[in-house]
Amino acid sequence: IDGGAEEAAGAPAAEAAPEAPTSGLPEIERVVTFVDRATCVPLVTELYERGGELRWVMSADVAKISREGSRNVPRAVRLEDRERGTWTELSVESIETGKPLADRHFS
Questions:
Q1: Cα 53 to the center of its chain, rounded Å
Q2: SS3 call for 38
Q3: CA nearest 28: which of 8, 7, 57, 6?
Q4: What residues contact residue 54 under an 8 Å CB cut-off, 6+ apart?
Q5: Residues in contact with 3: Cβ distance below 8 Å, sequence separation at least 6, in sequence order
């Protein structure tokens, strides 16, 4: 799904350009996200460094999206670092929705 296609596997794309780089991290030039039409869950997010090089790809397993109250939750997400050849997989086993979050959880 490289290259900023307008649609991938029936999922429309949205593109954004971050305003300022995050301190200590590689500078991201643009972000392209493909969203599932039925669930509104981001299926693939591509993060491009300056110069247009694809650096990270985050993907959700569409077969593991579950309905939790009024929300669709991706239960399996993978983040790939294309430069390093590494990845991290996140598995959501349980979730509580509708609970307030304290400001201390955000920076």
A1: 17
A2: coil
A3: 57
A4: 2, 46, 47, 48, 82
A5: none
Task: Collect all residues with Cβ–Cβ distance below 8 Å to 18 and sequence separation of at least 6.
Answer: 28, 29, 30, 31
Distances from the Cα of 33 to the Cα of 8, 48, 55, 79, 107, angstroms: 10, 11, 14, 13, 23
**Contact predicate 34/44, CB 8 Å:** yes
DSSP state of 63: G
Q: 16-73, pLDDT tens digit by residue? A: 877 766 666 678 888 999 998 889 999 999 999 988 999 999 999 989 999 988 899 9
| pLDDT at 7 exceeding the cut of 80 | no
Looking at the chain, list the stretches that DSSP marks H as alpha helix, in order from N- to C-terminal side. none
Please report how many Cα atoms fall inside a 13 Å half-sphere around the Cα of residue 12, on the Cβ side. Answer: 5
